[in-house]
Write a structure and sequence with these properties.
It is a single chain. The protein contains two helices and no strands. With 89 residues, the chain is mainly α.
């Protein structure tokens, strides 16, 4: 390695040690840029999953209620027309 590369390597090592000391002393963590991006991406994915889950639940409920209302209204129409006389439809 050239002296310039060794100097940069020493500076990086000193900075890493200093950051580790600060983290221990102040009980905080310095996030690297790619970790922040991963956390942002993870929060976006979580939000999308929650949103699609809620939309799926709404769609399922709407479909279920629609079919239930159709069956119920059909029953009441038949009950009203034939008055529970026991006639076969």
């Amino acid at each position: 390695m050239t002296p310039k590369v060794e100097d940069i390597d020493d500076k990086v090592n000193r900075l890493e040690k200093r950051i580790a000391e600060l983290e221990k002393r102040d009980n905080f963590c310095v996030l690297l840029k790619h970790q922040e991006d991963e956390e942002n991406l993870l929060s976006i994915v979580k939000s999308l999953c929650k949103g699609f889950g809620i939309l799926g639940l709404i769609a399922f409920t709407a479909i279920h209620l629609t079919s239930t209302l159709k069956n119920t209204s059909s029953f009441w129409r038949k009950a009203f027309l034939f008055g529970y006389c026991g006639w076969e439809l």
